[in-house]
Write the structure tokens for this entry.
Amino acid sequence: QVKLLQSGAALVKPGASVKMSCKASGYTFTDYWVSWVKQSHGKSLEWIGEIYPNSGATNFNEKFKGKATLTVDKSTSTAYMELSRLTSEDSAIYYCTRSGVRAPYVMDAWGQGASVTVSS
Amino acid sequence: DIQMTQSPASLSASLGETVTIECLASEDIYSNLAWYQQKPGKSPQLLIYYANSLNDGVPSRFSGSGSGTQYSLKINSLQSEDVSIYFCQQNYDSPYTFGAGTKLELK
């Protein structure tokens, strides 16, 4: 079945960067968009952006432009998100998702989430 | 950005009861509306897309309806496993925004 396996929790210092991974299995990785979603304070969700693994094309929420960088490695069916210049506002759980199967920008498979804590 | 307003913020209901959660968009989203369920300590999971299409494997006691700016999620015959936070999401226009969530608990 479809699985998205994310990297583990990270504790990072303010001003630093963090790169997280999302390994896909159970489907053809290059056929569907991978979207990333932020969940802060255990409740609200924000769409960060998406990447199409086949071409590397990306679309971003304006709020996260300059903050998030999305890449993929097609050879390992892995998507990556790097967050830069971290502040306490970036402390959250980040999910990778598969989107565009049921409807555009609708996420039908989710990773288990990666917790990022920004603290000195 | 399109604002998605969910109500109520929290809800307490008894087993077997029918519950309804509402989602109001700040503009017409032409049925481009999805619902997700997030069980405690788990990732969100897709329930419904295009306002009323049930995702594979989702029990038929879940249903969605609505059009324009007003949408709802209905759960018939509430089960204990339905205790979750429910989110709506508009997929009409970027950025694809979510509601703040409705926490459903058992009475």
